[in-house]
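Record type: monomer structure entry
Structure origin: computed from sequence
Chain ID: A
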Amino acid sequence: MVILATLEPCSLRRRLLRRDELIFIRKTFQFLQLSAQEAFILIKRILFCLELS
């Protein structure tokens, strides 16, 4: 009975949706992390330029 539940199309569809959602969430966090790193570098450059002037 457990095997039938895992092969059920609705169950498979739910699993695929969950996996896609996790991939989307992971990519979103990677993008946000990259954006935060870029913002940090930009702020450091601006502060460095302000120190020079």
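Annotation 1: Residues 1-6 have pLDDT under 50 and may be disordered.
Annotation 2: DSSP finds two helices and no strands in the chain.
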